[in-house]
């Protein structure tokens, strides 16, 4: 049976890689979160002087990616194209914000990575991708 959990070493490597990249622009603070496949928090870090909303949004983006089984921005686009809203799902922790990436291995959802704080959802997603690559899956 394939292993369906993230290892502590993988999570640490992902968080370290994201923080190192984020610290290259210290005047643009962000928060980063990794959750398991059920949306439970595995790791969280934030830079100084980050707004409360961005702190929460990083968690929500990671949760959305894991629970919905896809990147948060892509999920929102898909629902929008169907004339639907994420709020229809009935889970207040889900978000439409770009910046959450699903963590998958061999078609199995292992969790999600979320970043919040940059002015652009694409920049959030780019930093989350740094973490995803550092997982070594």
Overview of the molecule:
The chain is α+β, with helices and mostly antiparallel strands and 137 residues long. It has one domain (8-134): 2-Layer Sandwich (Beta-Lactamase). The protein contains four helices and four strands; from the N terminus they run αββααββα. It has helices at 8-22, 52-68, 72-81, 121-134, and strands spanning 31-36, 41-46, 100-105, 108-116. Strand 3 (100-105) and strand 4 form a beta hairpin. The longest helix is centred in the middle third of the chain and has 17 residues, at 52-68. It is globular, with a radius of gyration of 14 Å.
> Structurally, how many domains make up the residues?
1
If strands are numbered along the chain, what order do they take across the biggest sheet?
A: 2-1-4-3
- Taking pLDDT < 50 over at least 5 consecutive residues as the criterion, the unreliable ranges are none
Helical proportion, percent range: 40-55%
Main β-sheet: number of strands, strand sense, barrel status? 4 strands, antiparallel
The general outline is globular
Based on the coordinates given, report the CATH architecture.
2-Layer Sandwich
Task: Give the name of the CATH superfamily.
Answer: Haem-degrading domain
Query: Structural class given helices, strands, pairing?
Result: alpha+beta
CATH topology: Beta-Lactamase
Mean pLDDT: 92
Whole-Å distance between the termini?
A: 16 Å
Series of H and E elements: HEEHHEEH
Radius of gyration: 14 Å
Quickly count the helices.
4
């Amino acid at each position: 049976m394939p292993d369906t959990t993230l290892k502590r070493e993988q999570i640490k490597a992902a968080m370290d890689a994201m923080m190192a990249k984020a610290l290259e622009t210290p005047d643009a603070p962000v928060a980063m979160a990794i959750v398991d496949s059920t949306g439970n928090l595995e790791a969280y870090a934030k830079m100084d002087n980050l707004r409360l909303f961005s702190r929460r949004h990083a968690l929500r983006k990671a949760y959305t990616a894991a629970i919905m089984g896809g990147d948060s921005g892509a999920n929102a686009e898909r629902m929008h194209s169907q004339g639907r809203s994420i709020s229809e799902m009935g889970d207040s922790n889900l978000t439409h914000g770009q910046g959450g990436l699903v963590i998958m291995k061999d078609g199995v959802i292992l969790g999600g990575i979320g970043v919040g704080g940059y002015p652009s959802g694409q920049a959030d997603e780019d930093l989350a991708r740094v973490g995803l690559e550092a997982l070594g899956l």
